[in-house]
Write a structure and sequence with these properties.
CATH topology of one domain: Aminopeptidase
Distance between the termini: 40 Å
CATH architecture of one domain: 3-Layer(aba) Sandwich
Structural class: alpha+beta
Strand order of the largest sheet: 1-2-3-4
Order of helices and strands: EHHHEEEHEHEE
CATH superfamily of one domain: Gcn5-related N-acetyltransferase (GNAT)
Largest sheet: 4 strands, antiparallel
Helix content: 10-25%
Number of strands: 7
Bound molecules: coenzyme A
Number of helices: 5
Oligomer: single chain
CATH class of one domain: Alpha Beta
Radius of gyration: 16 Å
């Protein structure tokens, strides 16, 4: 189930960002739910119906395959959001698909913890993880009207396409040359 709203105190001391693991799959499913449920005035189907819909399930099913990378935001050690990316193919991909070398990202911070800089920190952590993994670009789709688009533009994403409902955006990382890590 989605997490209850929490009124967290302002300030960043109790917040942290850590790498995600396979054990964080419930967090990734919640990220996807909240990414769809960004407009809190809209009534949506149940949590399970949303995240098990094929359009969204492709983002979390079989988590742990090569190229799956995630970061988790915590408040006093408990997950309060996160972000991840995953590679897709021409035959099976999300709305933000660019090519088979460019992972699509997903991000959410639980209600009650938004507007405190966590989204900015998560996107920076994801970009750094991509850079270290030798990934040159990250892409995403964001529904038109979602204020998250402003956050993406502020953190280095650029608009590359527009559909009836979505914007597609891309960020370029400065990847480490393959084989130079370590
Ligand atoms: C988008 C989201 C991850 C940003 O996380 P955050 O911790 O609030 O981000 P920050 O505090 O670093 O930055 C806030 C920015 O996010 C945007 N934003 C989107 N929804 C917001 C909300 N409910 N409250 C505050 N900021 C929000 C604002 O444009 C704001 O930009 P600004 O700082 O230039 O004013 C978070 O608001 C969220 O989970 N939203 C719902 C899920 C969602 O839309 N995911 C993306 C789908 S494409």
């Amino acid at each position: 189930m989605p997490e209850p709203t929490v009124d967290a105190p302002a300030g960043g001391a109790a917040y942290a960002i850590r790498p995600g693991t396979a054990a964080d799959l419930p967090v990734y499913r919640s990220i996807l739910f909240h990414a769809v449920d960004w407009n809190l005035e809209r009534t949506l189907p149940s949590f399970e119906e949303i995240i098990d819909h094929p359009g969204l399930a492709r983002f979390h099913r079989g988590w742990g395959r090569p190229g799956d990378i995630a970061v988790v935001a915590t408040y006093e050690g408990e997950p309060v959001g996160g972000a991840f990316f995953r590679l897709f193919t021409q035959d099976d991909h999300g709305h933000g698909f660019l090519d088979e070398d460019t992972p699509e990202i997903a991000i959410a911070v639980w209600p009650g913890h938004r507007g405190r800089g966590l989204g900015t920190r998560l996107l920076a952590a994801l970009a750094e993880a991509a850079r270290v993994a030798g990934i040159a670009r990250l892409s995403l789709s964001v529904e038109q009207g979602n204020p998250a688009a402003q956050l993406y533009l502020r953190t280095g994403y650029a608009l590359v396409a527009e559909t009836d409902h979505d914007y597609v955006m891309v960020a370029t990382t400065a990847p480490e040359p393959r084989g130079s890590a370590g």
